[in-house]
């Protein structure tokens, strides 16, 4: 690895770690159907970070397979209108997605860099970071300028996986406060609900 590559890697990890530590004061916002959603204020941002936690009766590999089906995952990700793989390289992938917004709010699109780490205990962590300049912006969409987050899947016993989904984002443009407040709860709750349904149905 040359000096430029090391610097780029260090910068990338710094951004990921910065996103993770800025949201620390987690408060429970919803606890229903075995899914817990926590919110945290983020210094310098008017948008709250969210974290959803759920136990799914499926093994890590089954849940990971659903996430690696990029196009198919749009069916269970909240407000997803379209998702496709831009490129992949080993444990790294870049995806493009469109996010539905209620009228009259303009829809968003998102270019995401996904880095997957696998641990010896069988857990998987998928790091998420927006790369808004990777592909040209599309007409009729507002590009999400910043997103940092992660998926964490940890085996809890035979056939049971704890899934944690955490995101901090700046959606770009103007978002009404009522929509922003509902989205940060609905996004993790509905995503984990539908992922669980899909994973457990496939058992």
UniProtKB/TrEMBL annotation:
<dbReference type="InterPro" id="IPR028347">
    <property type="entry name" value="START_dom_prot"/>
</dbReference>
<feature type="signal peptide">
    <location>
        <begin position="1"/>
        <end position="23"/>
    </location>
</feature>
<protein>
    <submittedName>
        <fullName>START domain-containing protein</fullName>
    </submittedName>
</protein>
<dbReference type="InterPro" id="IPR051213">
    <property type="entry name" value="START_lipid_transfer"/>
</dbReference>
<dbReference type="InterPro" id="IPR023393">
    <property type="entry name" value="START-like_dom_sf"/>
</dbReference>
<feature type="domain" description="START">
    <location>
        <begin position="1"/>
        <end position="203"/>
    </location>
</feature>
<dbReference type="InterPro" id="IPR002913">
    <property type="entry name" value="START_lipid-bd_dom"/>
</dbReference>
<keyword id="KW-0732">Signal</keyword>
<dbReference type="Pfam" id="PF01852">
    <property type="entry name" value="START"/>
</dbReference>
